[in-house]
Amino acid sequence: MRPKRHILNSQSSLVLEGGGMRGVFTCGVLDNLMDRGIRFPYTIGVSAGACNGLSYMSHQRGRGKFSNIDLLEKYHYIGFKHLLTKGNIMDFKLLFHTFPEEIIPYDYATFAASKERFEMVTTNIVTGEAEYFEEYKDPERIIDIVKASSSLPYVCPIAEVDGRKMLDGGISDSIPIERARTQGFPNSVVVLTRNEGYRKEGNSHSPRILYRKYPELRKALAMRNTIYNQQIAEVEAREARGEIVVIHPEHPIEVGRMERDTRKLLALYEEGYACAAKVEFTIAE
Predict the structure, then answer these.
(1) CA-to-CA distance for 237 and 243, rounded, in angstroms?
(2) How far apart, in Å, are the Cα atoms of 264 and each of 178, 219, 255?
(3) What is the pTM of this model?
(4) What is the pLDDT of residues 109-129, one digit of tens each?
(5) CB atoms within 10 A of CB 58
(6) DSSP 90
């Protein structure tokens, strides 16, 4: 395999896929980038990619790993007990309030002072389409956006951003390389949380009782796998042409979206770090 190289310039972007707890791979990638001082003028994150991207934007090396592995083992914030007792498979109060405010404080000041752009992807449940948000100054709105981007369908409540109802950005735009291009940043490094060649099988239809008031959302959910596979094919084609660099796990993933085995999570984090280390970065003069 030829080494991967990326020339950092004013059109470079970092695109972060979601994937729930598979996002620990991305934590490893981002920690490696921070260890080497690699920054991008534009980063865009979806769902878990948005969560981990925020720690990258605030230069808090290791924060994603600590949140996703160490604190998971201590607080057990994922599981069906939360779904049964709180109507959410994750403890959002702990994740989006207690963690950033008390346990592992988020550095809002560093994020606010950044000259780099950061967008987070959500899905508008009325239109079924992706929406892209930036916020640097208002901590409450930042949390609203990242919470919406991470609100998985079926197992998380509908979220709101600016009074509009939202769910997980991965429903409508799982790998937003096209968004990066339209924003003027086509020179992408794309971080995927599935191994090369992965495809989603078939499509699914929501039970009629779910989201019956939101027909466009139901359509988006039904087409989600097809759209995802189309995006992966486009990523592979652009990588083959040398237009983008892709960092992904080298082996089939054994970590589930709601994985709670911290040994598996740590191994995937370490793989992410190692995979990122294989990419050579050159700053354009």
Answers:
(1) 9
(2) 32, 34, 6
(3) 0.96
(4) 999 999 999 999 999 999 999
(5) 20
(6) B
